[in-house]
Structures are given as C-alpha cells and as structure tokens.
User: Which sequence fits this backbone?
C-alpha cells in the first residue's frame, strides 16, 4: 500500500471517538482563538479588500463572510475568512504546517454551514486535517521552508484538502484524488511575508481545499498517489532537499500533532519568531522600568534562520513591522506593550522609532537549537547609556504548550479581537458555543453570529 | 533595475503599435485555434463537470462560459474556459526553435483570462491582442530565465509560467500602473503551482483554468490595493528561487531573463498548432506511424511489434485505461493509429482505449530510446513496425506537422476550427466566429465574439 493510500486510510477510517479528549479540548480553544483573529482581521485592510472582492465576484449565498454581513459561495467564503483569519498574524502556530488552524477552520466552517455539520464532525475533520498536513510536512523535510515555500500555504493546502474531504465524507478513492488535485494548486512563497499576500496564502489554502473536495465529489480526476510519485508533491516541494515519504504514515494520530509537539497560541499579533525576544524585553522593561531615552542598544542572540523569517529590518508599513526584529523590539520599548494597536503603519513610521532601528542588533548564533518549533532560547541584552546592562533569556514564549495561556487569557484575547466587530453579548455567546462545540448539532448557529456586519 | 520591474515596465509600456504585424497574425491563429479546442473541450467530461461546478457556485453574471449558455464572474469564467481550452490537449504549444519548445502551452492559460476580463471591461480586439502578446511574452521569458530544469524536475510549466502570463495579460487589460503590476505579479507568484504527475487526469487541464483564474484574481486584487513583494521574480524567497533555485545561481537566472526580455517578442517564433489531440511528445511518432500505415497499407493483425521511444519522462501513462490517459501513452497512440489510421477527436475516448484490440496492440509496443546525435540537435522520432511475416518498415520524422517549420495551412487551421467548433456551434456561428477572429484587430468589443462562443449548445 502506498503512502497516499495509507494517509487516506487514516482520513477515512478515523472517527470522533478515536480522538483523545485532550486533543478535542485544544482544538476547541484553537477554533475560538482563530474565530477571534478572523473577527479582528475582518477590519484590517487585507480583510476589507478580500471581502469587497468576493462580494463583487458574487456567488450563491451559502456561506457567511465573517464580520461583513453577507453570504457567498463556499470557495469565496473560505478564501475571504481564511485571509481575514491570518491578516493580523495573531493566529496559532504549530509545526510543520506553521499556522494550522487558519488553513483548516474557514474552509470547514464554509462547508459545515452548507452541510449543516455538527460540532463533532467539525472537530473530527479539523483534527484529521491538522494531523495529515503535519505528517506530510514531516516527510517533506526542512528544505521546503528554507528554499522559500510558505508551509502554511503549501502544507496547509494539503491539510485543508484532507479536512474538507473528511467533512464531505468522501470515500478512499475520492479522498486520494482530492489530495492529487489540491497538490497541483499548492503555492505561496515567503518573499510575500509582510504583505497582504501572506494572509491571502491562508485564504487560498482553504479555498483550494473546499474546491478540490467539491470537484472530486463531482467526478474530477487526479493522480491517486500524489504524495509519493516521482513527480509528486514530496519530490517537488522538498526543494531538492532530502525527503522521506515513509515518515508520513508513521505514528499517525499517535500522538496527534496538536498534542505533541503541540500548538502555540499567540500572545502578540506579530510573527511568532519575535515572541521569545518580546517576552524577554517586556520582562526587562517592566522589571527595570526602562524608557527609550535610557537605552543605548538592544542586542539579541538569534538562530541564522531568524533574519530570514523576520525579513524587514527597515519596515515602513504595519504589516512589515510584524516581520521585523527591529520594530517589534522598538515598539515593546517605546510602548511597554505589544498588542492589536502596535502594528499600524502610522505607529511603524514614528520618527523616533525609525531612528531606533539602528540600535537593535541581532547576534547570529548557529549553535542555537532549532529542533522544536519555539526555536529558543533567545537572549536579549539591553545596554543603557549609563553603562548598566540587563539580560534575560526566554526559552518558551508565553502561549507555547510549555507555558500555555490560561483560559482567562484566551477568552480575554478573544474578546479584545471580537470587540472590533461583535457586541459584548455576542462575543460571550461565541465563547459559550465553542466551549460545548461537541454538543452542537449545526455549526451554522455559530456562523450566523460571526457573519453579522460590524456594529 | 530588477527583473520584476523590467517585466512590469514591459507590460505597462507596450502598446498595440509596438507589436509587429507578424506577431499579431500568429496571435490570431493561436486564438482561433484555442477557441476551437475550448468549444470541443466544453463537451468533454472535464468541461461538463467544470461548467456545472461553476454554475452551482454562482457569480455576478459578467463573463460567459464557453458552450455553457450562461455567464458568471470573470474569475470563474476564466477557470472554466481555461480548463475547456486544455481539456483535449489539442491546444497550441511552443516550437522547438524557442529552446523551450514543447514545455508550455502558451495560449490556454492566458486567453481565457483575457476574454473573461475583456468581456467585463468591454475591451477592443487590439487591447485583447496586446494583452495576449504580453502574456505570452512574460510566461515564456520567465520560463526561459529559469530554464528547462523547472519542467524536467516535474513542474507543469503551463500551470506555473501560465499563471505569470495570465496575470501579465490581466494587468494590461486592467491598465495597472507599474507598481500595481508588480503587486499583481507578486500575488500571482504565490498562487502558481501544478505537478506533471497529474498528466493524464482532469487535473492537467485544470492547471490552465487555474492559471487563468489566478491571473485574473491577482490583477483585480492589486487594482484594489492588495500588496505583495515588489520584486517577486528575483527576491531571495521568491518565484525563481522556489521554482528553479535548487542550486541554481539566481544571478544567472536574472541575467538570462533580462537578456531574453531585451529582444521581444517570443511569439515571433510561431506556435505549434496541434494536429492530434494528444501530448505533443507523441506527435512526431504519430506522423511517422500514420505515414507507415498508409504507405504500406498495414493492417493491425499483421503487426508483430512496434518500436519507438516511449518518452516515459513526459508521456507518463504506461498502462492507459481512459481516454485522457491515452493522450499520455505513446503505446496507445501507436495502437490507435494502426487501428483507425487516424488520431482525431474520436480516437481518445475511454471506449477506444479499453477496446481489446487496442489493449492487445499496446502490449506489442516496445521502448527503443532514440539515439542522441553528436550535433546535440533533438534526434528524429523513429517508428519501426515489424510484421509477423518478417517485413520491417521504418520511418523517421524530424519535425511534426503543425510546427512553424511545417505549418498548418490556413485551410487546415480553419478545418480544425470547424471540426471542433461545430460540436457546439451552428455552422453560421462557426463561420461568424472565425471571421471575427480573423479580423480581431478591428473588433470594437470582444463581447461580440464571446456572445457567440458562450451560447449554449445548439
């Protein structure tokens, strides 16, 4: 039996009852968190443009567009909501996909709204998609990302296809073809980090998953062994690196990727690779009551990969600021906090902040461990003009499975995001619904709330 | 100036008057040919499925679906029409003289984007032709820059480069400025994909529709202010790096692209207009075996074996069971040519592939790799037929009929268009549409043409 067939056997053969409760609980928290970032992202420029675009394209009104008060076709809704969900780069993080929930939930909710799927079916498809996408990434290896592919887009597409096939209850043969059709659409390069096209990658992955599953259901054909073939997904997307397709079906669901290595909930709406240094600097700022005029320089120790991900050393736009060690640290020092208000173009362009960028130094250290997704430990040293020096090291950033957010912090984050669109009582209803998701008979109840146009 | 800026400037600054008449003539032939195969493709299974899918999704009715009798959004029309254009693998290809011959179907990813947006924007024939020549230029020159390794490693260049061609054409029609065009190229680059492993399935034609649709979406989003990397072709983690960068020096890619862009237009090499609805890799061998069958009046029962290069790296279906797989099986092409002495639209059906006589003959086809010659030119395709009575016939073909060096005559082109278009259109509409394309530069509004080819089946 080939690798594609084995993975598909897992997709088709795994049911809600086979999934540990612990995984279900994290999935529910992740979905709530993603709904929050989608609601907040719906008011971002990228969210506004994509909503306007799908509205103009039009489509049978079957699935809601978050925060915009209208319904459209399933692929359109998946595209729009996925783009919104990632617009702030505030959604969850888990390797090797990158941002697992935002490539899965919007497509599943679009399909689920139309199919009137239950909360159980949604959770089942989500966890299976997450697992399969992660395993495909494990087999493909690290050169994929290193070469420039955005794994959230590419692996996310495969994850979304697996999840959508599950929710549509496609059989083994059709699920294989769905993966084949989706693989020919997987795309997204990291050069687009710090632009609207990055969140578009997430929307696109959802759209592709939905479209591929629906087309195959209608009789579309594709290669049935796409993962392992000579010119298949692994061979091409491994980017000339080593890959091992046999690792893909190894230990499927045992444990689920969402449990180990686990899922990180973001505490700051910036690229995850800035979180350790942010934690460290914010700690120092508070502990020593630092203000910008006291500081001579900030130095941080970083793995060589970090400047290749935080690619904007001189950011000029809010989105670029999210991918900038210079801006994230400067903002933490100047504002004493990093939150939804931090990443506007106006804030990035503050002259005193722009002038500070040259005082942020990254000391590249190849000996740092990148074997886990957190990528730590990162070390921040603040040198003051009076000669004092303060250092702090953070291995696991806040929100990492080793330092999880409390329920209150998660709900607080959701409320701060949802506030941009929903009334307080609607936000509370979403929290309650997601809390008992496995008992909900029809997920369109949820979509009715989050589709409401903003107040 | 970086490659992306050069490409954007070319798109923004080139106007109809800058394009030689010869290029326009080639473009018009290619457009007519693509419309014909799209019409025929609209009734192929994949054409029917995509039309039904697009209808179910719905969309603001702005652009027509070929042979469908309804309109939808420009992005979905581009998707459907692009898939139909490549459904039969009967659409044009690049000639060997380009040095990237046979690796890109230039028209099917680009034209549907132009027609869909053209209908929405009510553009003239001149504007559509300008966008077409530019789309053709960008997809082929970017590919030339990256080089053959892209295709050889398994990317379907028609899908990946076609996306860049489609966005170039769409950006031109939407009159994007240089900055917006660079944004559009950046968005499109993040949508480009397509694996050759899907050859012989419906996903191969899907690549063309997807490229066309992605081009339309990227250009429209850029027009609305969507942002992307402004140097996507040459950026460290950009298009050329992920699609051809495995060890390749980015400076060389950039130099090659720049050099190629300096001498427009690629379309002046002409296009290969296909005589058979099968993978181009099989065409020279088909020319050879059809000639042998005719010349020596070979009947299939007499045949002991057929020898030719199966080209398994391109024509990857070794055990064909469907009409689509038959198009990517050299053995089936040889078998059906002997059985029917034709390789036309009726030959590539599931029924024809599954018939016992064809499956029997497929087993008699043997792989004899062609011998590379000292001058590094492409070796000719040699087909040898051995009969049971010991007779041996052999024929070699250097260049297939339909290549610009052995072109289809105008009559042959029109005959192919009629053969395809009459499957859907009335004979009056067949003639009218071919006249409109022949005088495309005089067309005031391309919707006039689209109104005809998007009528429902007669």
Assistant:
């Amino acid at each position: 039996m080939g690798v594609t067939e084995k993975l598909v056997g897992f997709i088709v053969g795994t049911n809600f009852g086979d999934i540990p409760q612990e995984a279900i609980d994290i999935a529910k928290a992740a979905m709530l968190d993603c709904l929050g970032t989608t609601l907040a992202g719906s008011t971002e420029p990228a969210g506004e443009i994509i909503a306007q675009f799908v509205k103009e394209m039009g489509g049978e009104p079957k699935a809601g567009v978050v925060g915009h008060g209208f319904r459209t076709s399933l692929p359109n809704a998946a595209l729009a909501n996925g783009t919104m969900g990632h617009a702030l780069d505030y959604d969850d993080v888990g390797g090797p996909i990158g941002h697992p929930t935002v490539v899965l939930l919007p497509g599943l909710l679009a399909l689920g709204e139309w199919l009137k799927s239950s909360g159980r079916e949604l959770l089942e498809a989500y966890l299976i998609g997450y697992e399969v996408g992660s395993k495909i990434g494990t087999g493909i290896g690290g050169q994929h990302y290193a070469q420039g592919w955005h794994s959230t887009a590419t692996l996310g597409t495969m994850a979304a296809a697996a999840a959508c096939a599950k929710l549509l209850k496609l059989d083994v043969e059709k699920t294989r073809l769905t993966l084949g059709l989706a693989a020919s659409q997987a795309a997204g390069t990291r050069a687009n980090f710090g632009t609207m096209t990055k969140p578009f990658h997430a929307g696109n992955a959802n759209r592709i998953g939905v479209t591929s599953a629906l087309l195959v259901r209608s009789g579309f054909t594709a290669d049935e062994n796409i993962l392992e073939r000579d010119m298949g997904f692994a061979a091409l997307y491994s980017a000339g690196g080593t890959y091992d397709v046999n690792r893909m079906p190894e230990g499927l669901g045992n444990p689920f990727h969402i449990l180990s290595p686990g899922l990180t909930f973001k505490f700051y709406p910036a690229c995850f690779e800035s979180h350790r240094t942010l934690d460290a600097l914010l700690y120092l700022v508070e502990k020593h009551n630092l203000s910008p005029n006291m500081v001579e320089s900030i130095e941080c120790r970083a793995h060589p990969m970090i400047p290749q991900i935080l690619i904007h050393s001189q950011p000029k736009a809010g989105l670029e600021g999210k991918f900038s060690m210079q801006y994230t640290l400067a903002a933490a020092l100047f504002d004493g906090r990093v939150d939804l208000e931090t990443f506007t173009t106006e804030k990035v362009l503050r002259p005193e902040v722009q002038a500070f960028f040259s005082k942020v130094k990254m000391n590249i250290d190849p000996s740092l461990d990148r074997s886990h997704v957190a990528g730590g430990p990162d070390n921040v040293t603040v040198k003051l003009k009076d000669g004092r020096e303060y250092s702090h090291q953070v291995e696991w950033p806040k929100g990492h499975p080793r330092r999880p957010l409390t329920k209150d912090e998660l709900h607080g984050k959701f409320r701060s995001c949802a506030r941009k669109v929903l009334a307080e009582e609607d936000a509370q209803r979403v929290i309650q619904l997601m809390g008992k998701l496995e008992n909900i008979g029809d997920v369109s109840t949820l979509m009715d709330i989050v589709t409401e146009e903003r107040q | 100036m970086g490659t992306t800026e050069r490409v954007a400037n070319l798109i923004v600054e080139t106007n109809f008057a800058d394009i030689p008449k010869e290029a326009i003539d080639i473009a018009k032939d290619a457009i007519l040919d693509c419309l014909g195969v799209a019409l025929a493709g609209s009734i192929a299974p994949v054409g029917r499925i995509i039309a039904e899918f697009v209808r179910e999704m719905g969309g603001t009715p702005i652009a027509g679906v070929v042979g469908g009798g309804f309109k939808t959004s420009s992005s979905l029309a581009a998707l459907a029409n692009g898939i139909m254009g490549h459904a039969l693998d009967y659409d044009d290809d690049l000639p060997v003289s380009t040095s990237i011959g046979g690796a890109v179907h230039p028209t099917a990813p680009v034209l549907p984007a132009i027609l869909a947006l053209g209908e929405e924007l009510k553009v003239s024939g001149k504007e559509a032709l300008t966008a077409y020549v530019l789309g053709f230029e960008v997809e082929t020159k970017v590919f030339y820059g990256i080089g053959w390794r892209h295709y050889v490693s398994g990317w379907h260049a028609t899908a990946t480069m076609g996306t860049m061609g489609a966005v170039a054409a769409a950006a031109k029609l939407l009159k994007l400025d240089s900055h917006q065009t660079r944004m559009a190229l950046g968005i499109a680059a993040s949508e480009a994909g397509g694996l050759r492993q899907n050859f012989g399935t419906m996903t191969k034609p899907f690549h063309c529709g997807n490229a066309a649709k992605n081009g339309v979406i990227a250009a429209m989003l850029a027009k609305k202010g969507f942002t992307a990397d402004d140097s996507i072709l040459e950026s460290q983690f950009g298009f050329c790096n992920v699609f051809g960068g495995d060890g390749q020096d980015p400076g060389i890619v950039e130099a090659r692209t720049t050099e190629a862009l300096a001498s427009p237009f690629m379309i002046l090499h002409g296009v290969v207009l296909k005589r058979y609805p099968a993978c181009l890799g099989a065409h020279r061998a088909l020319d050879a075996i059809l000639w042998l069958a005719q010349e020596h009046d070979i009947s299939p029962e007499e045949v002991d074996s057929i020898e030719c290069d199966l080209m398994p790296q391109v024509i990857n279906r070794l055990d064909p069971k469907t009409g689509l797989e038959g198009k990517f099986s050299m053995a089936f092409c040889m078998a059906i040519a002997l059985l029917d002495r034709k390789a036309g639209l009726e030959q590539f059906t599931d029924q024809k592939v599954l018939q016992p006589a064809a499956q029997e003959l497929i087993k008699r086809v043997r792989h004899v790799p062609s011998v590379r010659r000292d001058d590094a030119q492409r070796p000719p395709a040699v087909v040898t037929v051995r009969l049971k009575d010991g007779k041996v016939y052999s024929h070699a073909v250097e260049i297939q009929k339909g290549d610009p060096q052995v072109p289809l005559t105008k009559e042959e082109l029109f005959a192919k268009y009629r053969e395809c278009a009459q499957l859907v259109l009335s004979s009056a509409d067949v003639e009218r549409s071919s006249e409109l394309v022949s005088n495309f530069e005089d067309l005031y509004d391309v919707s006039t043409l689209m109104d005809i080819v998007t009528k429902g089946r007669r």
Remarks:
- Chain A touches chain B through 61 residues (CB under 8 Å).
- The first strand of chain A starts at residue 63 and ends at 65.
- The domain at 272-394 of chain A is CATH 3.30.1330.120 (60s Ribosomal Protein L30; Chain: A;).
- The first helix of chain A runs from residue 3 to 13.
